[in-house]
Request: fold
Amino acid sequence: MSAEKMTVSYIFPNGDKYVPCMWTSEGECCRTAEGVLMRHGVGKHTSGSGVIYKGEWKDDKMNGLGTAVYPSGAMYDGGFKDNMYNGHGTYRFPDCATYKGTFNNNRLEGKGNFTDAQGYVWTGLFHDRAAPGLKLKLNL
Reply:
């Protein structure tokens, strides 16, 4: 990857948009040795379907810390690796239930807390779509 960094606004052929974030003065793209422009740094991507991602990019993929907001009202804030939720993060479901914990390849994986829509907090180990042995945290 070339050391040349730049700030750009780009509209993809499918209508997606990539623009610099207001909170950085760093370059958001770089040009490869072959001359290809890649998202690299910090930026905001808005898809044609209304998904908005603000955060770090590396090698033209969401890599690092960021926030994804979905038209449904769902939101993820945390680590990304190769365009997937990875590491520690918080996912808010459209019904306002939340999961705070670890993710691996977009899946709940490891220790975490799930707060349901009624405000009850469930804690334990999560694995994909299963969470055997969850415990309800009681506020006594």
Summary: Residues 67 and 77 are 4 Å apart (CA to CA). The first strand starts at residue 5 and ends at 6. The two ends are 56 Å apart (CA to CA).
